[in-house]
C-alpha cells in the first residue's frame, strides 16, 4: 500500500529568493506499507517545474500499490512524485532487510559532510547582519538574482570575512549582468555561482571565460539532460526532487563525475526526512547544501544531526 499526506513545517524566518518568499515548507510524505513494515519518503513539489501538492499527489495515488523501485523508474518521470516514492521504497527495503540503505546500494558507510547555510535575499544591511550571525559557519550560500546584487555580496563578505561563499542567482541574471558581475564574484572570494541565467537562455554560457566555476541547478535534472550541460557548466547540482529519487541521483552522480563535472548536492526547503537520503549522494561532493532543516522552526522526530557546520548521516529511526 502507498499513502501520501500533505504536511507543513513552519520556517524559523521568512525565506526569500528572486522568485518569491515563503514562511512554511509544504511537503508530501509518502508511506509504503508491506508485510507489516513501513518505509517513508518526502518530496517538495515545486511550481517552477509545473508541480503542485495536488498534481504530485495525483501522480502518486495512481501508482500500483505493489510497484517496485525498478518499475517506478519507468512509471514516472524525474520529479517530486517519483522522489518521495523511490525514497520510501529504499526505506522500506532497508527496514525489511535489517540493513542500512547504503549497504543495499553497495556504498561505504557515510560520514558527516560540511554543508552550506543559506542566507535569503534581503537588503544589504539585513544580509550583512545575517552573515555576521552565521560567520562561524564554513560555507554560506547567498540568494541573489537582481541587478543590484554586488552591494549585497559586499555586505555578506563584510559580515562573514572567513566563510566560503556560494552564490545562487536562481536564474535571475542576464548574460550581460553575469559578465559584469564575474570579476566582483572573484574579487569577493565566491567559490561557486549557481544558475546565473534562466535555463532556457543558458546557451549564452558556452565559451564564456570562467572566473568562478558555474553550477547548473534549474538546468540539471536527470542523466538524460547531462549532455546538454557540456560547455555551459562546470558543476551539476543534484537534488532528489529533480532526479526523482535516490536511485537516479546516485546514477547521475556517477555519470557526472565520469563526464568531468564537479558535483554539488542540494535540496528544496524540507524536513530531515527529505535530506536523509541526499546525505548518501553528498559523500565526497565538491559542495553539500543540505541545510533545509536548519531553516525550519520544527522538524521530524529523530531529525538529522547538525553540528560544527556539518550534516551527519541519518539514524535508522528517521530513514534508511
Tally of strands: 14
- Write the element-wise H/E pattern from the N-terminal end onward: EEEHHHHEEHEHEHEEEHHEHEEE
The CATH superfamily of the largest domain turns out to be: Enolase-like C-terminal domain
For the biggest β-sheet, the strand order reads 5-6-7-8-9-10-11-12
Oligomerization state: single chain
Radius of gyration: 19 Å
Please give the CATH architecture of the largest domain. Answer: Alpha-Beta Barrel
User: What is the overall silhouette?
Assistant: globular
Descriptive report:
- This protein has helices spanning 53-61, 69-75, 80-97, 101-104, 124-133, 150-159, 175-187, 240-243, 246-258, 272-281; strands at 2-17, 20-34, 37-43, 113-114, 117-119, 139-143, 164-168, 190-194, 214-216, 235-238, 262-265, 287-288, 306-307, 310-311.
- It has 320 residues and is of the alpha/beta class.
- Helix 1 crosses helix 3 (80-97), helix 5 packs parallel to helix 6 (150-159) and helix 9 (246-258) runs parallel beside helix 10.
- The longest helix is centred in the first third of the chain and has 18 residues, at 80-97.
